[in-house]
Design a protein that fits this description.
6-stranded parallel β-sheet, 15 helices, binds thiamine diphosphate, binds magnesium ion, 375 residues, single chain, 12 strands, alpha/beta, globular
Length: 375
């Protein structure tokens, strides 16, 4: 079947652009539709023409470079302080390829600000949120219409940074990093999962990798801090949040983009659900890296099931996952101190180059500190 794309009603485009240019703190709430439409260049061009800052949802992560001066980062269940800041102050929200679905796994859509929504799913319009303008169409085509309309209304060079967005985002980002820096460079033992992220970032090239998390704390801890600057450098998932799913995604990602370093970060419970699929990677010579953040528990689940946790230890796990993975044909590493992380990641990545999967089992702390600003 042929795919048919369509653009939005030009009258609505005109009205939305006029309103956006009048607003004092507009923001973009960018979802997975930008990936589907491959509207990456248009999104950057539109943001730069209007100086509107960009938040991505969990599934939208990596649709906009997080190193960009207009990037607010990801607003998932956990998220950045910059997202929180703009969610509170915004006076106009433009959804781009976003369904505006109410879910625990994305930042809340601001209720009191006017909103417009670019989506190709008619059923998304007024589904969970009453919006002011629907821009029904393919994100790439609609953003192109919006770009042309900004040029018509504000001139070829668009609107300057009249609201001082670049400085404001930089100030809030500095505050955010000041708060989280100590976690990211922590020397504590067992190892902090945030330190794992920092050391991984030094060894692999994030722009040429594809990282994905698993359910639980690995997702909450990686999403706000892993720098996604190129399309598909991160697979954000979790609206349906089945534990173990990340490994399957990583297998597929490596097949789709064999030139990239693929990394799947999972907890010990997640490994219990799907870890045996590492044998699939060995058999099919899919050289991906799995990092098991082995903290010995399902973090926080003792509070969900206090009686059985106390009596039977149902929230806890034992086991040596590197040994299991060795039996499945992977190159394996066990890491107990932060300084061992870098060399282990280097050797694990080297094995991947030869088509062998690798597993790094890091003995980590059950870290409950998460960047939760809006919930
Ligand atoms: C199939 C399935 N069962 C249960 C859950 C609920 N759940 C979400 S996270 C989690 C525990 C995760 O523990 P672990 O993988 O060890 O990661 P941690 O949070 O400890 O870092 C559970 C049970 C789920 N998401 N999917
Ligand atoms: Mg765990």
């Amino acid at each position: 079947m042929k795919v048919h794309r369509s653009g939005a009603d030009p009258d609505v485009v005109r009205e939305v652009v006029a309103e956006l240019l009048k607003a004092s703190a507009p923001m973009m709430y960018v979802g997975q539709g930008v990936h589907y439409a491959e509207a990456y260049e248009e999104l950057i061009e539109f943001a730069e023409l209007t100086h509107i800052p960009v938040m991505t949802t969990l599934a939208g992560k990596s649709a906009f470079p997080e190193s960009h001066v207009l990037a607010l980062g990801t607003g998932a269940n956990s998220g950045t302080l910059m997202v929180h800041h703009y969610l509170q102050k915004t006076d106009y929200v433009l959804g781009v390829g976003a369904s505006f679905t109410n879910t625990h796994f994305n930042a809340p859509v601001p209720k009191n600000a006017p909103s417009a929504q670019i989506t190709n799913g008619v059923e998304d319009i007024n589904k969970d949120h009453e919006i002011d303008h629907g821009l029904i169409g393919d994100a790439k085509l609609v953003l192109r219409q919006m770009i042309e309309e900004v040029k018509r209304q504000a001139g070829e060079n668009g609107r300057g940074d009249v609201n001082g967005v670049i400085e404001e985002v930089a100030t809030v980002r500095a505050e955010f990093m000041k708060e989280w820096g100590p976690h990211l460079i922590s020397d504590e033992l067992p190892i902090s999962p945030y330190r794992v992220l920092t050391e991984l970032k030094k060894v692999v090239d994030p722009d040429n990798s594809i990282v994905t998390h698993d359910s639980g704390y690995p997702r909450e801890q990686f999403v706000p801090f892993w720098p996604s600057n190129t399309p598909h450098s991160y697979i954000g998932w979790g609206k349906s949040t089945q534990l173990g799913y990340g490994l399957g995604l990583a297998l597929g990602a490596k097949l789709a983009m064999p030139e990239r370093q693929v990394i799947n970060v999972m907890g010990d419970a997640a490994f219990g659900m799907a870890g045996l699929d590492i044998e699939t990677a060995t058999r099919a010579e899919i050289g991906l890296m799995t990092i098991v953040l082995n903290n010995g528990v399902m973090t926080h689940y003792d509070s969900h099931m206090p009686f059985s946790s106390k009596k039977y230890g149902t929230n806890a796990f034992g086991g040596e996952y590197a040994k299991v993975a060795e039996g499945l044909g992977a190159h394996t590493e066990v890491v107990e101190t932060p300084d061992q992380l870098g060399p282990a990641f280097r050797r694990a990545a080297e094995a991947n180059k030869n088509g062998q999967p690798s597993l790094v089992e890091a003995k980590t702390k059950a870290e409950e500190t998460v960047a939760h600003y809006y919930r």
